Amino acid sequence: MSRTALIVIDMINSYDHPDAEALVPSVRSALPGVRTLLDRAREEGVPDIYVNDNFGRWRSHHDEILRNVLSGPHADLVEPVRPGPESMFVVKARHSIFYQTPLEYLLQQEGVDRVVLCGQVTEQCVLYSALDAHIRRLRVCVPEDAVAHIHPDLAEAALRMMERNMGAEICTAGQVRLR
Amino acid sequence: MSRTALIVIDMINSYDHPDAEALVPSVRSALPGVRTLLDRAREEGVPDIYVNDNFGRWRSHHDEILRNVLSGPHADLVEPVRPGPESMFVVKARHSIFYQTPLEYLLQQEGVDRVVLCGQVTEQCVLYSALDAHIRRLRVCVPEDAVAHIHPDLAEAALRMMERNMGAEICTAGQVRLR
Amino acid sequence: MSRTALIVIDMINSYDHPDAEALVPSVRSALPGVRTLLDRAREEGVPDIYVNDNFGRWRSHHDEILRNVLSGPHADLVEPVRPGPESMFVVKARHSIFYQTPLEYLLQQEGVDRVVLCGQVTEQCVLYSALDAHIRRLRVCVPEDAVAHIHPDLAEAALRMMERNMGAEICTAGQVRLR
Amino acid sequence: MSRTALIVIDMINSYDHPDAEALVPSVRSALPGVRTLLDRAREEGVPDIYVNDNFGRWRSHHDEILRNVLSGPHADLVEPVRPGPESMFVVKARHSIFYQTPLEYLLQQEGVDRVVLCGQVTEQCVLYSALDAHIRRLRVCVPEDAVAHIHPDLAEAALRMMERNMGAEICTAGQVRLR
C-alpha cells in the first residue's frame, strides 16, 4: 500500500533576503497551485507537512515564526497558505528538507512512501529535497505550477533533472494524484 | 579555542509513562544539579540548549509542550528548570539528541566542541547522546548529580561506560568547568 | 514478510591494541557461537554481512585487511570465522556499524528488517550497533554466547540494556531463529 | 589553516549502462583534465580520494572492481586515471559521495575543509556531491574541463547552480589552486 504526503517548503517566509525581488513574482504565481494542493490534501485526508527554515531563530517556534512573518510587509504571500490546525511542522536549518531533520522518521511513522513537493525555490531547496527523497527511495512528484523560482532557466533545468535523473513525476497542481 | 554548551535532555516531561514511578524520585534528586548548571551557564555566558522529545506532537511547538507539561500533575519537576529567554530549543523524535535533529549543525554554528549533558535518562538518552557526541568528536562531560535514572545499577554501568569507553568526564554540577 | 541478516562485527582483528589481553579469552569463548551462527546462516540461506573497522587503512580493501590479520599472531581467532565466498563486507570507520556506512541502505535493499548481532565488543560496538538498529526500527537479536567483552560486568549491563531498553532478544547461538 | 583534497568521482566504471553512449565522448574529453589534477595533487602532496559506486557488488573490494573494469572494453577510459599507491578509496552505494559513506569522517580526520571535485556525471553525482559538501560547510571547487556529462545543457545549468547557489569555484584543471 502506498501513501502520499504533501510537503510545503519554505513558504513561511519574510522575503527580506537579497533574492526576494526576483522570487516574489514567481511565488505570487505559485500561490494558487499551492492553495489547490492544500485544499485537495485536507479534503482527501492526505497529511500536509510544512518544512521550513528557522532563519537561525533557535529560540523560536513555528507560531512565532508565523506571527513574525504575518506582521511583515509580505503577509499576503503567507496568509493564503498558512498551516491549518492539522498541519505538521518540521524545522530545517539548511537547504534540504531531510538534512538533519526528523522528516525521514516522521514519513516512516506515517507510512508515507511518496511525497508531493511544493513551495520554493525550484532550483534550490525543491531540487535538493527531490534528490534527498529519491536517494531514500521515496517517490517524488513536483507540480510545476506550485513551485517558485529565482532564475527561470535554472528552474526549468532543475525540473528536467528531477524528471530525468530522479524519476520525479512533473505535473500540475490540478493533475496531482494524492491518493 | 574551545567552547562548551550545556545540553538539557528531556526535562520538559509530563511523567505519565510507565517508568515514571521509578524515574520521578531520581529526577527530584537531580533537579538541584540541573538548576546549578543552568544558573552557572547563564551567568557565565555559556549557551544552554534544551533537546527534548516532542512526544509525537508534530503539530506542537515548544511553548505548547511546555504549557501542557506545566499544567499537569508534575509541574513541580519542570518549573525549576524551564527554558529561559535565551535558551535554545531542539526537538527530537527518538532516543539520541543527534538522531535526525539539527543539533550537530547548531553546535558547529556556535563553535561548540564540548558538551555538558544533564537531564534524563542516564542509562538511556544520556548514554546514547554521549556516544553520538563522542562519535562526532565532541568532548563530553556528565555531572552525575544532574542526571536521573530508572535503574540505579544500569545508570552506574552507563556512567562507567561513558567514562571508560567514550572518554567522558564524570564529575558533579558544582565541579563542572563551563568556560 | 520478515527477513533476517547475520551481522558479524569486528571479528577481522589483529588484536594488537591495549585491551586485547582482556578481550582475547572472551573472543576465544565466543568463537564456537559465531561459527554456529555462520554455519546455520549459510545453510539456511540467510545473508551474512561482515561490518569491520578499517583500522584507518583507507587504501586497503577487505582482502588486504584479512590477509594482514591472517598472517599475524592471532590468526587462530580469525581463521574459523573468516568471510565465505557469499559474505558481504561493509567497512566502518567508527564505533557503530551504522555511523557513516552504507549498511542501512544495504539492509533495505536486501529487504532485511531484523538483525542478529555477533562479534565484539559487547559493551561497546555491539551495544552501540544494537541502539542504532533499534532507532532505525530494525528488530535486534543478540546471542550472548557469540559476543565477546572486555569487562564482564559492563557486558552484562549492556545485555540488560539491550533487552530492556532496546527491545532486543537475548538468547544463544543455538536458539536463534534465523528464518 | 585550510587543506584541500582532490575527489575523483565514479571514474572506475565499466560504461555498460544505457547512458554510456552519450557519456563516453565527454569522459574522453575530461580525461586530460582529471590526469592533470592527479599529477598536480600527487606532486604537491594533496590527498586524492576516489569515491566510487560499488555497482551492487557488496562482496567486492576496490581491486576487484578495478581489475574487472580494466579487463573490459573501456579500459582505455580507466587506465589513465587509475588509483595510485597512496590514493584513498571510499565505496558509495548511491548518488552522492556523502550519502551513507565515511567520507565526511575521513575528511575531518585529514583536516580537509575544501574539496576539488572531478569525474562524472556533472549534472548528477558531481552536482549532488557539491551540494552535500556545501551543506557540510566544505568549500567546493569544480574544474569544468575535468568533469563529464550526459546532457550538455543540463551540465551547463548544473555548473551555474554550483557556482551561484553553492558558492562553488568553477575553473579549469590547470588553474585550480590545490594548496
UniProtKB/TrEMBL annotation, chains A, B, C, D:
<dbReference type="Pfam" id="PF00857">
    <property type="entry name" value="Isochorismatase"/>
</dbReference>
<dbReference type="InterPro" id="IPR000868">
    <property type="entry name" value="Isochorismatase-like_dom"/>
</dbReference>
<keyword id="KW-0378">Hydrolase</keyword>
<protein>
    <submittedName>
        <fullName>Cysteine hydrolase</fullName>
    </submittedName>
</protein>
<feature type="domain" description="Isochorismatase-like">
    <location>
        <begin position="4"/>
        <end position="173"/>
    </location>
</feature>
<dbReference type="InterPro" id="IPR050272">
    <property type="entry name" value="Isochorismatase-like_hydrls"/>
</dbReference>
<dbReference type="GO" id="GO:0016787">
    <property type="term" value="F:hydrolase activity"/>
</dbReference>
<dbReference type="InterPro" id="IPR036380">
    <property type="entry name" value="Isochorismatase-like_sf"/>
</dbReference>
